[in-house]
Design a protein that fits this description.
The chain is 53% helix and 8% strand. The protein folds into 2 domains: 126 residues, Rossmann fold, CATH 3.40.50.2300; 168 residues, Orthogonal Bundle (Hypothetical protein af1432). Helix 6 packs across helix 14. Helix 1 links the parallel strand 1 and strand 2. The chain binds fe (ii) ion. Fe (ii) ion binds next to loops.
Length: 318
């Protein structure tokens, strides 16, 4: 059971490696060892590690770069730094740079194994979650690929939304929430038939009602993913209007979650400025006029103002 847990221990002192190795092998973990950054790098690249335990003071590496390098090579592994008293500042810096935990040297094996056991469990959950999220994101991309007109739509909406959120100086966490929600905001369209989604003519009222189900479908699809719980409201409410005449619930004003109000502006602007089967893209200026015209009715006026202040500076890829 624990055999599939892979842990790399990096330290230039063989005695430290030995201590970790005994402790971790007893626990049933598979242990890799490296005495330098160079040796470690090869293992980090080739093995799907769960935990990387690294000395902060390795002779051949610069601590700051090292943490980043590990993170880039393996986005799933938890990084645990070990440091003696003299290196406490470096350990703190590592935590700021994305290391997950810190073990002081000399360490008490009983305490340390408890810490590591808990970290292994947390890491497995996190890795599962990242994989699940990636699966969902590729589903969202596959969905867009069904329709050449919406290819790249979610990414552009996300770029606009994040730019607005940054301009509004929202917290890092809130910005990340908006980023994920932006990418997934139309995932519910997976439940709408091609006949409606790809229809080259204007939709009938009935067909439009079907399309309007996509926020609800999206909410249902994503509900089992625990790490998405705080993003689902942004997805579910992205078609609400500031005046309360939107869907699915007709929420009004500030009752609509901020992330959803931001995505609504970004979404509409992106849709207006790209080709649709039944019409050509509107010019940027017309789209800007439309946003201004619908300030306070369809859109939160403050968000429109923030967006229009930066719209020209936003760079889009593709
Ligand atoms: Fe939508």
């Amino acid at each position: 059971m624990s055999e599939d847990v892979k842990i790399l221990v990096i330290d230039d002192e063989q005695s430290i490696i030995g201590q970790f190795e005994r402790m971790l092998t007893d626990e049933g973990y598979k242990v890799y060892q490296a005495k330098s950054g160079e040796e470690a790098e090869k293992i980090i690249i080739s093995e799907p590690l769960n935990i990387v335990i690294t000395d902060v003071n390795l002779p051949d590496i610069e601590n700051k770069e090292w943490i980043k390098k590990i993170r880039q090579a393996n986005k799933y592994a938890f990084i645990v730094v070990t440091a003696d008293y003299a290196d406490i500042a470096a350990a703190t810096q590592s935590l700021k740079l994305g290391a997950n935990d810190y073990i002081g040297k000399p360490f008490d094996p009983r305490d340390t194994i408890l810490t590591l056991r808990a970290l292994v469990e947390k890491q497995k959950l996190k890795a599962d979650n990242i994989q699940l999220l990636e699966t969902i994101k590729s589903l969202a991309l596959a969905l867009e690929a069904r329709d050449p007109y919406t290819l790249g739509h979610s990414e552009q909406v996300t770029a606009y939304s994040v730019a607005i959120a940054e301009r509004m100086k929202l917290s890092r966490e809130e910005i990340e929430r908006i980023r994920e929600a932006g990418l997934l905001h139309d995932i519910g369209k997976i439940g709408i038939t091609d006949a409606i989604l790809l229809k080259p003519d204007r939709l009938t009222a009935e067909e439009y009602d079907k399309i309007k189900e996509h926020p609800e479908i999206g909410k249902r699809i994503l509900a089992p993913v625990r790490s998405l719980a705080d993003k689902i409201p942004f997805i579910y409410y992205h078609h609400e209007r500031y005046d309360g005449k939107g869907y699915p619930e007709g929420l009004k004003g500030e009752k609509i979650p901020l992330g959803a109000r931001i995505i609504a502006v970004a979404d509409t602007f992106q849709a207006m400025t790209s080709d649709r089967p039944y019409r050509k893209a509107l010019s940027r200026q017309i789209a800007i006029d439309e946003l201004n015209h619908n300030k306070g009715t369809q859109f939160d006026p403050k968000i429109v103002d923030e967006f229009l202040a930066i719209v020209d500076a936003i760079k889009l890829i593709g």
